Amino acid sequence: MRRQLGNVELAQAITNEHYPFNAVVILRFSRGPRPGDLRKALAYLQGRHPLLSMGIVREKKKWFFHSDSVPAIPLVELPRKDENHWQQIAEDELNTTLDFQTGPLLKVTYLVSPGKEGPGELLFNFHHAAVDGSSATRLLDECLSLCEKLERGESLDAPEMKELLPPAEAFFPRSYKGLRAKIKIMGFMLRQVGDEIAYRLATRKSRKAPIHLEGRGKITHFMLSGESTASLVKICRRWRMTLNNVLSTAIMQAVHQQLYENRPTLFRHFSFADLRPYLVPPVQEGYLGSYFSMMRFTVPMDSRESTGQAAGRFQKLTYGAQKKGDKFPAHLTSAGMLKALFRMRSFRMGTTALSYTGPVLLARSFGNIALDHLHVFTSNFVLGPEYTAQARLFDNRLYWDMLYLDSDMEQEKALKIAQNIQTQLEDFIKKGEE
C-alpha cells in the first residue's frame, strides 16, 4: 500500500528530516490499563488504521507513505519513578526523531507503578503526518475502550482495515481545485509577500528572535480551575469572541511583556484551523490523518490594550482571513514555505503559536481504568516560534501545555510567561464579570 504525501503531510516530513517534529500525547491515570491488554489493543489498532502500519520514504523529489515490512507498534514499559517522571520522558520523545522511514508512525511508552497497579502514564508519540487533534482523540478513546473490553474478559475480533484516505486537498471545495485554486493561491501569495515586506520594514529596529543551531525542547504546563474555565467560556460567548482568539491574545501579550519588554513591535503568530468540517464530503474524525491548516498572522503589539481589546482586534484579523478562505491556500503552500525556511535558515517562522483543539470528548473512566489528566505537546525546532502552546478543554478545565527551547530562555523565564498567561486570563475574567 502506497500513497504520495499531501501538502501538510509533506511539510511535516520535510521538518522531520531536519529536526524532530512529533506530537506527544500523555494520559495520566490513577489506575491505568493492564500492559498486556494495552499491547493487544495496539495490535488491533494497527490492523485497523492504515497510517499506523506505514512508514514514510523519499524517492527522488517525492515522498510516499508505504507499508513495506513495517514492524509492530513499539510499546516500551518503564518503572514509574515519581509523579513527575512523565515530563522527562515527554521531553525525550519530543527531541527524538521517530524512525519514520521504517515505521510505524507511532511509539508508545508506559510508565508503570510497582506491581503494575495504581498511578501510571501512557505517552503516545506520533509522527504528525499520521494524526491531527481530533483523530488522535478518537484513537485514544478507541484504545482505552479496547483495554476496558479485554479487562472484562472479552476477546477482540479480527480488525477490519479502514480505507487509506487521500490527503486533505483531495476533499477541498471545487473553488480550491485546478485553475481556480492556482488563481486563489496567487492572490494569497501576493498578500503574503506584501505582508512580509511591511513586516520587515516595520521591525528593522525591533528585537529579532535569535537563531541558535542547537536547542532542546523543554515543557511546562498549567490548568485553569473548573470555575475559572466556566467563567472564561461564558464571557467569550457573551462578548462574541472565540476562545481560540482570546487564548492566542493571552500568549502573545505574555511573551510581549516577558521577552520584548512591552516595546511596540509586530508579532508573527500561528493559529491552526481544523479543515474536516469544510471538506467535501467532510472527513470523519475516526480516520487518522492531518486535516488542518497552519495560519500565520502579523499582529501589532500594544501594551496599553487590555486582553479583551487586543482579542477583539485579533478576531478581526482571523475573521478577515476566514472570509477570504485563506485556510485552503495556506494548506496548499505549507510545504513550499517550509522548504524556503530550511533553505535560507536566516529567520524564525514566528514569535508564538497556539493550537486550541476545543473540548476533548474523552471519558474519565473506562471500567476500572481511571483517567485523571490529558496533556499534548508538539515538538518545536530552532527555526520555529519562540513559545508554542497546545490548549484544550478536558473534564471542564482548560489545559495549557507549553514548549520552549532551552537555547531561547531559561526555565525561570518560561515559567514567568506561563504565569503571565494566567494573569492575562484572570484579568479578562475579572473585567468580564464586573
Characterization of the model:
This protein has helices at 7-18, 35-48, 85-94, 133-151, 178-202, 226-238, 243-259, 307-324, 327-332, 334-344, 411-433, and strands at 2-4, 22-31, 55-59, 62-66, 75-79, 106-112, 120-127, 217-223, 265-274, 292-301, 352-359, 365-366, 369-378, 387-394, 397-405. Helix 1 (7-18) packs parallel to helix 10 and helix 7 (243-259) packs across helix 11. It is an alpha+beta fold and 434 residues long. The chain has two domains: 2-151, 2-Layer Sandwich (Chloramphenicol Acetyltransferase); 174-358 and 378-433, Nonribosomal peptide synthetase, condensation domain (Chloramphenicol Acetyltransferase). The radius of gyration is 21 Å and the shape is globular.
Features:
single chain; 434 residues; Chloramphenicol Acetyltransferase; 2 domains; six-stranded mixed β-sheet; 11 helices
Please write out the topology:
Elements: E1 2-4, H1 7-18, E2 22-31, H2 35-48, E3 55-59, E4 62-66, E5 75-79, H3 85-94, E6 106-112, E7 120-127, H4 133-151, H5 178-202, E8 217-223, H6 226-238, H7 243-259, E9 265-274, E10 292-301, H8 307-324, H9 327-332, H10 334-344, E11 352-359, E12 365-366, E13 369-378, E14 387-394, E15 397-405, H11 411-433
CATH topology of the largest domain: Chloramphenicol Acetyltransferase
Q: C-alpha Rg, in Å?
A: 21 Å
Count of strand segments:
15
The name of the CATH architecture of the largest domain is 2-Layer Sandwich
Which percent band covers the strand fraction?
15-25%
- CATH superfamily of the largest domain, by name, is Nonribosomal peptide synthetase, condensation domain
pLDDT < 50 stretches = none
**N-to-C SSE string, H for helix and E for strand:** EHEHEEEHEEHHEHHEEHHHEEEEEH
Which class do the helix and strand fractions yield?
alpha+beta
Give the end-to-end Cα distance, rounded to a whole number of Å. 59 Å
> Would you state the CATH class of the largest domain?
Alpha Beta
Biggest sheet strand order reads 5-6-7-2-13-12
What is the overall number of helices? 11
Portion of residues in helices?
25-40%
Main sheet attributes: strand count, strand direction, barrel closure:
6 strands, mixed
In round numbers, the mean pLDDT is 95
Tertiary shape: globular
Number of domains: 2
